[in-house]
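queue> pop job 88
queue> type: inverse folding (structure -> sequence)
queue> payload:
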């Protein structure tokens, strides 16, 4: 009975000792009101020294000490996203968005960051939902830009046109060139499709593109293709002529169509002469190849070979040499020539490398010309020239 009484008296003593130890520990670790923990400054120092991994560890320590530090939660979530840990970033920003003690501005901030997390993680539907929730908020404009980027990623061009028009009206930002490109994408889809109304749809979208940006060459290039598809080569020539006059560098993209339209009218020599004049001002291997093939078809392989040889002496080009060797083989009637065939075999790998189109923004290389870079999704970053021509122009 005495042992049990002693035990009951010891319980309050142990409780008091525990409470005292906790107080001492908290005094050692806590800072006076208005002061930030040391871990916060360590984290800032790591950030300034470009050590995000160590900064994250330091900020995690601060968040554990003071869970109410909202701004540090935002910083931590952004660091996770930048490091590619999108799942952890999503958890941080999702917890913030669901906290009831945040004001409207902080909650909107959390939703905006969450949308960027979803976008980085490739969860496009959830990203779009997050950005849609910001309609009418102070993040409305940046959220609208992200929605526009999403529409382009999934190639929803009607949605992209609507969002770009809204953004242009709300912010005053000029997006005419992008809107023109969106209409051109719809026109190109229609021309490549099988719908009975495809030409009508293409004509409507090309007209809208011309209104959005009258100076852009793409609508006029598409207009020529449409006229040619409708069996009106003269209209195609009239659509392409301004491009030759104002944007001669784009002759490479329309050279074969230009010659085809003139051939349909029985005016191939005139078409060759005009295109040759443009080629002298802006030499390009695609224009050279188109003219050489037209000359070979109308006058024979030897005149085409002589013309190409003269052009290459004035403007040396490895890609042009590859074309010239092909013309020599045709002029020889396909007869074997060990030296010529060996030269073709040796230059073929290098010619393939130099024949790529190159994005001037991200450096993405492609075998075909793109109006929108597949790498960085920017518009009009591909010059209508091959890699060899770009390198020669440096």
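queue> result:
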């Amino acid at each position: 009975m005495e042992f049990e009484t002693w035990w009951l008296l010891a319980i309050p003593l142990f409780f008091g000792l525990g409470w005292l130890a906790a107080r001492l520990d908290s005094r050692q670790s806590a800072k006076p009101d208005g002061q930030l923990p040391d871990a916060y400054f360590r984290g800032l120092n790591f950030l300034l020294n470009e050590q995000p991994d160590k900064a994250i560890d330091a900020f995690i320590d601060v968040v554990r000490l003071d869970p109410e530090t909202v701004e540090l939660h935002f910083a931590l979530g952004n660091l996770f996203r930048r490091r590619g840990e999108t799942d952890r970033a999503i958890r941080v920003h999702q917890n913030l968005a669901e906290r009831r003690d945040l004001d409207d501005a902080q909650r909107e901030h959390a939703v905006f960051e969450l949308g960027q997390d979803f976008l980085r993680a490739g969860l496009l539907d959830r990203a779009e939902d997050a950005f849609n929730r910001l309609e009418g908020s102070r993040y409305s404009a940046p959220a609208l830009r992200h929605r526009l980027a999403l529409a382009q990623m999934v190639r929803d061009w009607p949605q992209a046109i609507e969002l770009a028009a809204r953004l242009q009206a709300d912010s005053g930002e000029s997006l005419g060139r992008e809107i023109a490109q969106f209409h051109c994408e719809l026109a190109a889809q229609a021309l490549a499709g099988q719908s009975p109304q495809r030409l009508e749809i293409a004509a409507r979208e090309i007209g809208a593109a011309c209104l959005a940006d009258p100076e852009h060459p793409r609508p006029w290039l598409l207009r020529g293709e449409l006229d040619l598809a409708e069996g009106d080569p003269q209209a195609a020539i009239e659509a392409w002529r301004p491009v030759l006059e104002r944007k001669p560098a784009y002759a490479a993209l329309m050279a074969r169509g230009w010659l085809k339209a003139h051939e349909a009218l029985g005016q191939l020599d005139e078409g060759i002469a005009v295109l040759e004049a443009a080629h002298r001002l802006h030499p390009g291997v695609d224009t050279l190849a188109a003219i050489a093939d037209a000359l070979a078809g109308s006058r024979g392989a030897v005149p085409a070979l002589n013309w190409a040889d003269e052009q290459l002496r004035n403007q040396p080009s490895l890609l042009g040499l590859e074309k010239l060797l092909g013309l020599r083989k045709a002029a020889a009637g396909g007869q074997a020539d060990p030296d010529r065939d060996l030269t073709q075999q040796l230059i073929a790998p290098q010619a393939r490398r130099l024949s790529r189109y190159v994005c001037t923004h991200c450096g993405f290389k492609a075998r075909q010309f793109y109006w929108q870079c597949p790498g960085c999704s920017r518009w009009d970053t591909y010059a209508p020239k091959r890699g060899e021509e770009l390198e020669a122009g440096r």
